[in-house]
Amino acid sequence: MPGERQAQQQAGPYHPPQAYPAQQAAGAGAAAVRRPRTGARTTPRVRKARLRVSKADPWSVMKVSFLLSIALGICTIVAAAVLWMVMDAMGVFSTVGGTISEATGSNESNGFDLQAFLSLPNVLMFTSIIAVIDVVLATALATLGAFIYNLSAGFVGGVELTLAEDE
Questions:
Q1: Would you call 68 exposed, middle or buried from its count of C-beta atoms within 10 A (0-12, 13-18, 19+)?
Q2: pTM surpassing 0.85?
Q3: Are 166 and 49 spatial neighbours (Cβ–Cβ below 8 Å)?
Q4: HSE on the CB side for 128, CA within 13 Å?
């Protein structure tokens, strides 16, 4: 019947069909049977390449250092503002300001007013000036560093890097 299974007895172990039958015909019997690989590699192969950085373009170094120093300047301003607000909420300025005004004051004057000197607008103005100076200096120094690197790489060949790629 078509739906019934027919019992087949095999004379030996089961051999799956070969992907390359021409090789089986060329070989002799058991020598042509493909055997599974038992020592298969379980870790992925890593390709490595050795590269040399022989030149850094000063224009691209200047652009990247400018953007990174602007980001650092913004982070500096935000950090100064947050630190000032936390210290003001803790009452540091009023406590230290009272101590300083008592120490520097006399009967006729009240002494040095720390709270007026370290107000949030004054602190942010000072921090902004420092951030602008930092942007200019960092950009100029990175560009100068690219020129110096190019000169020294001309003598010694540059920096060698080994890059690895996972497969």
A1: middle
A2: no
A3: no
A4: 6
Q: Give the amino acid at 44.
A: P
Domain boundaries, the chain: 58-104+113-154
d(CA 78, CA 85): 11
Q: What is the pLDDT of residues 106-125, one digit of tens each?
A: 556 666 667 778 888 999 99
Q: 105 is written with which tokens?
A: 């004051």
User: What secondary structure, in 3-state letters, does 93-137 show?
Assistant: HHHHHHHHHHHHCCCCCCCCCHHHHCCHHHHHHHHHHHHHHHHHH
The separation between the first and the last C-alpha atoms of the chain, rounded to the nearest angstrom, is: 52
Query: Which residue type occupies 110?
Result: N
Which pLDDT score, from 0 to 100, does residue 40 have? 60
